């Protein structure tokens, strides 16, 4: 039931956030009590990421004071629309607003706007006149959701059905808007997607907690081989198993704090509608959704393999978790596309810095570290390898931020250079991998900063020691994961690189010793993990009972 409700949150959210009081008055109660189940019809067969290229049209008819909704070709068929195939009675349809002009052109295209379109009869539940609905068919996962395809043939809706918070059409067909440009209107319209991205980032961490809990508990329970003439050891005693799972457990904690902070920022944004915060939350939600869901998708396969054959039993959940979560990397905005929003925002901030502007609240560290960046790496500190230094949060955060600053500065130079010969689109594409690395590097810096804050504000001394250990493992594992970048710019000398690798392996061993407490702290009840091999007690007997012994 979780996902159909979520689709209603997209339908309901779009009406509440893109509409005005008249829409709240007419639809709020029905949305709230599910009398009006609806769907969010943005994606088309030919376009998903590129919203500005959507082809469905909404043409204003001044004679009847209506919009005519049309699917001009098969490429414009609305596709993947959750709740459309079975339950939905309404759709928020994203279409190009076309207004009549009384010149030779005859019509002006005002860009993508959102419209409420009833799609099924309230009583008979049959598709309404001009509306053709089909099911998109069986999917890799999330088959509890009825994703449908919608074709519109001259479907007439009242002018009032335009969700007119950011742009409106008067009775005589004149367009007016409170926003200064089509770009600002487009940004505001897309703002509706941010809530879903916040939700996806947050729920992806929950999936990661479940997977890490199952794999960790099973790895402590499972014994295989041991020293000669001695009892077998638990597989989590193997350095390789620790390397697979303990940095992942550390990342799970890191993402928990970062996405909790994102939800808080999102809530503040919904209250204040502060423009700078809107842009900040857009970039942060896009970045965290992309980074966390990609990491979780990879981790689900690592956990499945780390549990051997029993990880492949459906009852132990890795298959359904992997299949249901996989689409988190695509819907609500494809990860590759969303990371580019982060890079674009960083470049905007960078340019404004060098034009004397100030950085938005999340990126203000760039102002400081850009200056740090300008001074070449310190050859002395590049060789420091002591544990106190490597576990110092200042060293860790400076390293992450130094990398981001260098990536930002170097890609800005490359874009400027390539734009001269390739134009901005060509230059962007020539630097695309660099831009994606920049975005991920920045998001890792934000995640670490939030984790360090959480450690420093932890009220309980023993928990703080444990969190500090986990945070140090997260930081050093991420630096080791990209050690090539740090070595290429001599930010880390060879001896320091070796020390970082050695220490991160030792910290994985130390985290292994508190792994039970760390996963228990997620406080996941058994009916949520629902994997016999992860039960806190009698796991094997629960498992044998499951198959009938
Ligand atoms: C919190 C609880 C919520 C409830 C829980 C929800 C759980 C999760 C939901 C589960 C169900 C999910 C079901 C799936 C639903 C869907 O998939 S719905 C469809 C999703 N589709 C997309 O996300 C489309 C992706 N594409 C885009 O977002 C845009 O096309 C784009 C790629 C970002 C735009 O690219 P482009 O045309 O190149 O324009 P730009 O120049 O990049 O942008 C123009 C300006 O607009 C600003 N902007 C863009 N997006 C936003 C935004 N979301 N918010 C604010 N601002 C935005 C951008 O920064 C540009 O601004 P300027 O630089 O100032 O011009
Ligand atoms: C289960 C499910 C539920 C969904 N629910 C809804 C819903 O309720 N409502 C709705 O409107 N939509 C919904 N969608 C659609 C979803 O939002 C789109 O699939 C998503 O936005 C991606 O668009 P696309 O599939 O057209 O992929 P495309 O945009 O075609 O992208 C395909 C690939 O090309 C790459 N690519 C595209 N553009 C670029 C670029 N500029 N740079 C680099 N690489 C690029 C992407 O990385 C991606 O890997 C759903 C989809 C699924 C599968």
Features of this protein?
549 residues, alpha+beta, Butyryl-CoA Dehydrogenase, subunit A, domain 2, Butyryl-CoA Dehydrogenase, subunit A, domain 3, six-stranded mixed β-sheet, 11 strands, 55% helix, 11% strand, globular, binds ligand LEDWP2DD, binds flavin-adenine dinucleotide, fatty acid binding, Acyl-CoA_Oxase/DH_mid-dom_sf, acyl-CoA oxidase, lipid metabolism, fatty acid metabolism
Question: What this model shows, in words?
Answer:
There is one protein chain. This protein is α+β, with helices and mostly antiparallel strands. The chain has helices at residues 2-18, 21-32, 182-190, 194-221, 239-272, 275-306, 318-325, 335-354, 364-374, 387-390, 393-430, 432-456, 461-481, 483-488, 494-512, 515-520, 526-529, 539-547; strands spanning 38-41, 57-61, 66-70, 78-82, 90-100, 107-118, 131-135, 147-152, 155-158, 168-169, 175-176. The chain contains 18 helices and eleven strands. The strands form three sheets. Strands 1, 2, 3, 5, 6 and 9 form a six-stranded mixed beta sheet that branches. The protein has a three-stranded antiparallel beta sheet with strand order 4-8-7, with no helix packed on it. A hairpin with a 6-residue loop joins strand 5 (90-100) and strand 6 (107-118). Flavin-adenine dinucleotide binds at residues 7, 39-43, 48-49, 80-82, 139, 142, 147, 327, 330-331, 333-334, 336-337.
């Amino acid at each position: 039931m979780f996902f159909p409700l979520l689709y209603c949150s997209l339908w309901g959210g779009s009406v509440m956030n893109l509409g005005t009081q008249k829409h709240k008055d007419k639809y709020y109660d029905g949305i709230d009590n599910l009398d009006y189940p609806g769907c969010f019809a943005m994606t088309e067969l030919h376009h998903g990421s590129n919203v500005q290229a959507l082809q469905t049209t909404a043409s204003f008819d001044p004679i009847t004071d209506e919009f005519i909704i049309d699917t001009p070709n098969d490429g414009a068929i609305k596709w993947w629309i959750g709740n459309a195939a079975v339950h939905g009675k309404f759709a928020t349809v994203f279409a190009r607003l076309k207004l009549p002009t009384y010149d030779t052109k005859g019509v002006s295209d005002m860009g993508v706007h959102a419209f409420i379109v009833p799609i099924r009869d309230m009583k008979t539940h049959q598709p309404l006149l001009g509306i053709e609905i089909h099911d998109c068919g069986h999917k890799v996962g999330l088959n509890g959701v009825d994703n449908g395809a919608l074709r519109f043939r001259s479907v007439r809706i009242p002018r009032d059905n335009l969700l007119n918070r950011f742009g409106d059409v008067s009775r005589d067909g004149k367009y007016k808007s409170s926003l200064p440009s089509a770009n600002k209107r487009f940004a505001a319209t897309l703002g509706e997607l941010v809530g879903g991205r916040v939700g996806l980032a947050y729920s992806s961490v929950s999936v990661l907690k479940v997977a890490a809990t199952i794999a960790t508990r099973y790895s402590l329970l499972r014994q295989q081989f041991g020293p000669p003439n001695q009892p077998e050891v638990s597989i989590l005693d193997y350095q390789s198993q620790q390397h697979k799972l303990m940095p992942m457990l550390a990342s799970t904690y890191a993402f928990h704090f970062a996405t909790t902070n994102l939800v808080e920022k999102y809530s503040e944004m919904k209250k204040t509608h502060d423009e700078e915060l809107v842009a900040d939350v857009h970039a942060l939600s896009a970045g965290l959704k992309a980074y966390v869901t990609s990491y979780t998708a990879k981790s689900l396969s690592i956990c499945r393999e780390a549990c051997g054959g029993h990880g492949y039993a459906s009852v132990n959940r890795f298959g359904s978790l992997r299949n249901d979560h996989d689409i988190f990397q695509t819907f609500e905005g494809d990860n590759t596309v969303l990371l580019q929003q982060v890079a674009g925002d960083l470049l905007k901030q960078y340019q404004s810095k060098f034009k004397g502007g100030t950085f938005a609240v999340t990126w203000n560290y760039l102002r400081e570290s850009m200056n740090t960046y300008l001074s070449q790496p310190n050859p002395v500190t590049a060789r420091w390898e002591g544990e106190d230094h490597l576990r110092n949060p200042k060293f860790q955060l400076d390293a992450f931020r130094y990398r981001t600053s260098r990536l930002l500065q170097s890609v800005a130079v490359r874009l400027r250079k390539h734009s001269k010969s390739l134009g901005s689109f060509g230059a962007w594409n020539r630097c695309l991998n660099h831009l994606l690395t920049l975005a991920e590097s920045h998001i890792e810096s934000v995640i670490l900063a939030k984790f360090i804050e959480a450690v420093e504000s932890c009220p309980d001394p023993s928990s703080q020691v444990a969190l500090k250990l986990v945070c140090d493992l997260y930081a050093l594992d991420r630096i080791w994961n990209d050690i090539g970048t740090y070595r290429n710019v001599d930010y880390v000398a060879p001896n320091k690189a070796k020390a970082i690798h050695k220490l991160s392996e030792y910290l994985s061993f130390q985290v292994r010793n508190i792994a039970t407490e760390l996963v228990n702290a997620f406080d996941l009840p058994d009916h949520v993990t629902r994997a016999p091999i992860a039960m806190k007690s009698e796991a094997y007997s629960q498992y044998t009972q499951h198959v009938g012994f």
